[in-house]
Structures are given as C-alpha cells and as structure tokens.
Amino acid sequence: MKKIAVVGTVGIPACYGGFESLVENLTQYRSVHIEYQVFCSSNSYEEQLASHNGAELIYLPLNANGVQSIPYDILSLIKCWKTKPDTVLILGVSGCCFLPIFKLFSKAKVITNIDGLEWKRDKWGKWARKFLKLSESIAVKYSDVVVTDNKAIGDYVTTEYAKPNLTIAYGGDHALRPSMDNQVPVCDDFAFGLCRIEPENNVHLILEAFSKVEKRLKFVGNWQASAFGRELKSKYAQYDNIELIEPIYDLDELYKLRKSCSLYLHGHSAGGTNPSLVEMMHFGVPIFAFDCSFNRYSTDNKADYFADSSILVSMLQNLDSNRLSENGKLMETIANKRYTWKEITRLYEQAY
Fold first, then answer.
1. SS3 state at 52
2. Most buried residue, 103, 120, 223, 235, by most Cβ within 10 Å?
3. How many Å apart are CA 86 and CA 110, to the nearest integer?
4. Into how many domains does the chain fold?
5. Model pTM?
6. Are the beta carbons of 150 and 299 closer than 8 angstroms?
7. Nearest-5° angle of CA 79, CA 66, CA 57?
C-alpha cells in the first residue's frame, strides 16, 4: 500500500469547492494499492466520520479557508510527522511557507497543486498578495512534484521558476445524472451562467450584454455575499429576460438547468481550469467563454470567446445554429477525453 496524506482542503464528504470535489473523486476512484488520509476542518462538519470512500479522516479545530488556512495547513503538515505518509498531496499554497521545516523532519515526498495563481486575484489586499506569492515560490522550490490544473499556469511556472511541472485538470462527469433524464424538459431557449459573484469572473460584462438583447439568461451565484453582488442584482434583476438565482449546491437541481439550457456563459478570467466549466462541457452545450489563455486551453480553442460586453452582444445577436451545434459537440468530445475522474485519478496516481 502507498499512503497518501491530503492537506489543504475543508475535507470530505465534499461540501465546499473544487479541491474538495477533487479529493472526493480521487478517494472514490482510487486504485486498490492507494490508501488516503485526509485532513478535515471540524468546524465544517456536524457529523465527524472516521472514514469516507475508504479514506481515514483526521479533524483539526481550525477553518480551512481565510486567514486560518495558514495555521490549518501547517498543523496538518505537523500531524504528518506522526502519521508518516509516503506522499503528501498539498492543495493550495497557504501553508507552504512551512515546507522547508517540514522537509527537515519528514522523508515523505511532496506533491503540491499550486491552484490558480491565487496572488493575482482581485479579492486579496497588497500584503495578502505578497504572502501568497512568497508561499507559491516556496511551494515550487520545496515540492518534489508541482501540479498545475491548466497548461497556461504550467507555462508560467516554467517561465517564472524554471521548474518542471505536471498539468492535471479536474473531472466533470460527476455532474451528469443519467437517471434523471426523464425528469428534465427538452432543451429550452435560455442561456445559463454559474459562478461566485466576483469581479474577476466578469459577471458584470455578461449581465450588461443580456440587458441589451432579448435572449433569456438564468444566472446562479452568491449575489448576497458581497456589495459587488448585491449591486449587480439590484441593477439587473429588473430586466424581464434576466433571472438571478441564489446559490444552488444540489447537483440534481443544477443538472436540470444544465441539461435544459441552450447556451452556457463562462466569464472567469483567472484561476486556471475552472471546475464549473469542465462540468458543463460534459453536457454538449455550446459555450461562450471570456477570452483568456486559461479558458482557451481548457476548451482547446474550440469554444466561442468574448473580451467585452459589446462583443458578447454581437455574438448573441448573430447566433448560428450550425456553429452552436458544432461548438457543443466539440466541448463534449474534449470533456470525455480530458475531464473524466477516471483519467484525473490515473494521472494523480501516476504522480504518486
């Protein structure tokens, strides 16, 4: 058996975001010779299971996100001195400032997924960005293997640090619900969007474009979580063709929207390969994505792209059924080749 410790997530069963879904599926699809122990935030679980998907769960009394993510990750690494895994898989760079000390007292190999250039995100202040950039540089230097989820980030690591790295994305096929097909109406003529409501996800560009066209839009997001989101909702909820929906975490409910929409809008401009994008690609729905290197790599340059609201307006006013059909088929083909959990698990286990 090869023992893998996972550091840097809220934990499993998955209840938060992309990294948690990653660990959920890595443990579910693991080979028989792989054994996982996963560090979990006790603050996020009312019921603290001893194991899940065959993985041992170890709880720590700290939050896995925000400023507490730093001591949370460091404490997880300290615990690894006792549990003695063969490999430590670190997801994110928050606690990687501790890696030089960890490596002094542990023989475990370290694989770090550095996430999506977190220090570039608009939501962080000046000093938080400096810290995250420093943690990133330490993570790259002291990890035995660096994983990036997008080739554009891999190219950055090669250029910035002259460090070899592996690109391993995310699976998206867990979003499919074949047993529910009879419960979902046939394709409806509405566009769909889904994301956290943050400036870097360009929600404002998408809403501005749809305020100038007749096509319907249903957009799911955490509108009440910030002043930015509340302002957008106040401004655009008045349009008859725009429906702004509060967060939906139930994959069955999301499946109904994904399965019945005729177009998907993806506005992310940072973060690498986005889980919500690769999930949507499995539905064979045409995708209009914000024009950046991350999205072009994820969609193999075969989606349609917009750089501002005026370009998106033009795209929406000149929809071509043949082009849309081709776009959707290409997205599904790419997803089935690159973004299944069976393939992602194979790549991670190859890295171990």
1. strand
2. 223
3. 9
4. 2
5. 0.88
6. no
7. 35
Co-location of 192 and 305 in the same domain: yes
- Give the contacts of 14 (CB within 8 A, at least 6 positions apart): 20, 21, 23, 24
Q: Give the domain range for residue 312.
A: 175-338
58 forms bridges with which residues in the sheet? 39
Q: Are 11 and 45 in contact (CB under 8 A)?
A: yes
pLDDT digits (tens, 9 = 90+) for 294-329: 999 999 999 999 999 999 999 999 999 999 999 999
CB atoms within 10 A of CB 212: 13
Q: Is residue 352 part of a domain?
A: no
Instruction: Indicate whether 162 and 180 sit together in one domain.
Output: no
Contact 158, 169 (CB under 8 A): no
Single out the residue in 128, 143, 168 at which a domain terminates.
168
Helices (H) and strands (E) in the chain, counts: 13, 14
Residue 177 φ/ψ region, left for φ over 0, alpha for ψ in the -120 to 50 degree band, beta for the rest: beta
